[in-house]
Design a protein that fits this description.
The chain contains 28 helices and twelve strands. With 741 residues, it is of the alpha+beta class. It has three domains: 349 residues, no CATH class; 183 residues, Serine Threonine Protein Phosphatase 5, Tetratricopeptide repeat (Alpha Horseshoe); 114 residues, Galactose-binding domain-like (Jelly Rolls, Sandwich), CATH 2.60.120.260.
């Protein structure tokens, strides 16, 4: 038997003729080992902080505040373009010491909470006096404003929500529960929030909420949920999200950007750790609820209150991001957990400000709790470590008939995870060494049968028509759409066997990843000549893949075959800009007859004489639309009522307005409603674009004579130069009316 989600690995081992022995439960043991190591800073800070004295814990909190202030200063330098920034993808926003703006925002929101509770001593027994947390109210207010501005500078939507929660908690820290001070604090909070939101930075962040519906997080969550259901109840192993996600990622979700995390730590932990992860999360929530009850009863100091609120902010942020998977923030979470679980020696507020009177020792201090919260914190920490060990040491019997043997000895799974053998196989592939390629690929599969590349490399060691290669590539393809070697092989296989759907789908995947873009695009262009394949390509283009623009702009419309574009037009899937670009390329090549036929076929109505196209973007103009000519001494402006205002200095002569027309031979009238008296200084001229230079509009008339063999003409409106002063005329869009054939 095998645990849920392990069936592909079992079949790949069989196809590779490898022994079916006991295997690690984690689908990527190396990643699980790294996940365990990444817990060490958080665990170390938790243990050190929980055992520290009150003064030492206060100094640690002040160090966090100072580090946050330095991060804001670096963020300010980044925003003006002079500061170092780890990730250029966030260059338009501030990230401070982080590579991600969301994590900078979360850090600063935590700093707001710490500053809010770093107040001066309220009595000789106050924790702030003994812990060194003795910031004056003006200093705290200045730091809170600084950190709030820093959150806005990140442009993070989640950061704005966290900031609102942090500022709300800061009111309680400043005002306590007394009604008068609480009302004053809320009024000050409202004023600060209003100023922040009305600022330009605040408006930019608010504007980003309008794009929340298109956020990729929703696609990550749906894919991760599919993986959770597949691997439940044992999970896929901590740290395996990047390894297992491609198997559950629909083709429409594939782009060159790959999510290394689910952007929901709650969901990702349960997906990876299974039922133990769910138990660990439940234990954490229970302990936090217990801590909240203790703090409400007054059995805690200011640092513990700040730590509780800070951990709450991190858990809220974890719903839409992965702050606890970043070493800096996970270490900070360990520090906050240590602050929360340390012994409470003194009360943060006078007894009158607490909900309940704390129990005091004879010396006036709050009596230490019999059992520190730190004792109970061992439970979730142990569960998390057990979940990691679960991924390491529990083994999965790959097949019901398989038993451990000398051919498949148990080994430490993190010693080799297949990556080194994978690189050796790739080197052999480049060198054309088939025997070494086969041996290295088998070694990689034996070490990591869940990785998608090794079975594809083994398939390449066989002939393309070998059934073993076909089977291996089939299972490699079931691992997702992101492996370039698999995609290209399956495109070729689909073409050889007539499986057009396979060829088109894998071509789509290859183009989404930018793999051999020109070659794969040429394959699709050839396939588009066949009706069945063309229908499949139209279906893929209809979902607006990222390669659509390049594909439709590179070559389409330059020949007689416009079948793909017309198919898109018939389904209502052709964008006007795409049709205009195809026609424009024909016009630029001076193939006016083809351009005219393409414009008609693609629904562009080239003879429509509207002035609206004058304001259209360049990429939406066709060779058949009006164009204003930049003539010195003249101006042209499109009015709100649709008329065109033309102005010219005295004596100015030359063309001011032009367009191309595709007309059948015959006589036409150019009808224009003049809205000015000086239109007598304007005249129409027309010439055939195909070699004939004679003016087709007789002098002093508005009659257009189109001869045979002149399918496209260039029509111009010219100033005659006879005006004695500056002239102004308004024109409605001309109408081309046929008089006779």
């Amino acid at each position: 038997m095998s645990f849920p989600g392990r069936e592909p690995a079992v079949e790949i081992l069989r196809l590779a003729d490898l022994p079916l022995g006991w295997r690690p439960l984690s689908l990527d043991p190396g990643a699980t080992w790294r996940a365990l190591l990444e817990l060490l800073p958080a665990v170390a800070l938790f243990a050190a902080t929980a055992a520290a004295s009150s003064r030492q814990r206060g100094q640690l909190a002040l160090a966090v505040i100072l580090f946050a202030a330095a991060s804001v200063l670096l963020e300010a330098a980044q925003l003006i373009g002079v500061g170092w920034q780890a990730d250029p993808a966030h260059r338009l926003w501030g990230t401070g010491f982080f590579s991600n703006r969301n994590h900078q925002a979360a850090f600063l929101a935590l700093a707001v909470v710490l500053v809010a509770f770093a107040g001066p001593a309220r009595s000789k027994h106050s924790s702030s006096a003994r812990a060194g947390m003795n910031l004056s109210s003006p200093a705290r207010a200045a730091l809170i404003i600084l950190f709030s501005a820093g959150v806005l500078g990140t442009g993070s939507r989640a950061g704005l929500v966290l900031l609102a929660l942090a500022l709300a908690s800061s009111v309680l820290a400043f005002a306590g529960w007394r009604r008068r001070t609480l009302v004053t604090g809320l009024a000050g909070l409202l004023a600060l929030v209003s100023i922040l939101l009305l600022s330009s930075a605040g408006q930019k962040v608010i504007a980003r909420f309008a794009t929340a519906e298109t956020d990729l997080r929703f696609t990550f969550w749906s894919d991760a949920l599919g993986a959770l259901l597949e691997y439940w109840p044992v999970g896929s192993g901590l740290g395996t999200f990047p390894t297992v996600l491609p198997r559950f990622e629909p083709l429409d979700h594939v782009t060159t950007a790959f999510p290394n995390n689910a952007h929901n730590d709650w969901l990702e932990l349960v997906m990876e750790a299974g039922v133990l992860g769910a138990i660990a999360l439940t234990a954490v929530l229970v302990l936090l609820c217990r801590s909240a009850w203790q703090l409400w009863r007054g059995r805690g100091d200011a640092l513990q209150t700040a730590a509780f609120l800070g951990l709450g902010l991190l858990l809220v942020h974890s719903v839409v991001d992965y702050p606890l998977r970043m070493t800096a923030l996970s270490a900070l979470a360990g520090l906050l957990a240590g602050l929360l679980t340390g012994h409470s020696e003194i009360a943060p507020f006078p007894a009158s400000e607490c909900a309940f009177e704390p129990k005091r020792a004879p010396n006036g201090l709050v009596a230490p709790r019999r059992a520190s919260i730190g004792v109970y914190a061992v439970l979730p920490a142990s569960l998390l470590l057990l979940a990691t060990a679960w991924s390491f040491y529990l083994t999965d019997q790959a097949a019901s008939s398989a038993k451990p043997s000398a051919a498949a000895p148990l080994s430490l799974p993190w010693v080799a995870d297949g990556r080194a053998a994978e690189q050796k196989a790739l080197a052999a592939l480049r060198e054309g060494d088939a025997s070494r390629l086969e041996a290295s690929a088998r070694e990689a599969i034996d070490q990591a049968p869940n990785r998608p590349l090794p079975p594809a490399l083994l398939a390449l060691a066989f002939r393309a028509d070998d059934q073993a290669a076909v089977n291996l590539m089939g299972w490699a393809g079931s691992a997702g759409w992101r492996e370039p070697v698999t995609n290209l092989w399956l495109v070729d296989y689909g073409l050889r066997t007539g499986n057009l759907q396979l060829a088109v789908l894998r071509s789509d995947a290859a183009l989404r990843l930018g793999t051999e873009r020109e070659k794969v695009s040429e394959v699709l262009r050839r396939l588009a000549k066949e009706p069945q394949a063309r229908a499949l390509i139209v279906d893929r283009l209809a979902v607006d893949p990222p390669w659509r623009g390049h594909f439709l702009s590179a070559g389409w419309g330059t020949g007689e075959d416009l079948s793909l574009l017309t198919s898109l037009q018939e389904k209502g899937q052709l964008k006007r800009s795409e049709a205009a670009a195809a026609v424009r390329r024909l016009g630029e090549a001076e193939r006016w007859r083809d351009a005219w036929q393409a414009a008609v076929a693609l629904g562009l109505r080239p003879n429509e004489a509207s002035f609206a196209a004058l304001e259209a973007p360049d990429d939406e103009r066709t060779p058949f639309e009006w164009r204003v000519i930049d003539l010195p001494g003249t101006t042209a402006e499109l009015q709100e009522d649709g008329t065109l205002s033309l102005e010219a200095d005295a004596g100015t002569a030359g063309a001011v307005l032009t367009r191309r027309l595709a007309l059948a031979p015959g006589q036409y009238a150019i009808d224009v409603d003049d809205l000015g008296r000086e239109s007598e200084f304007l005249r129409w001229t027309a010439q055939c674009t195909e070699g004939q230079q004679a003016d087709l509009v007789p002098e002093g008339t508005s009659q257009l004579n189109v001869p045979a063999n002149c399918s496209v003409i260039s029509l111009e409106l010219r100033w005659t130069g006879r005006q004695l002063s500056r002239s102004d005329v308004k024109l409605n869009a001309p109408r081309i009316r046929r008089i006779s054939s």
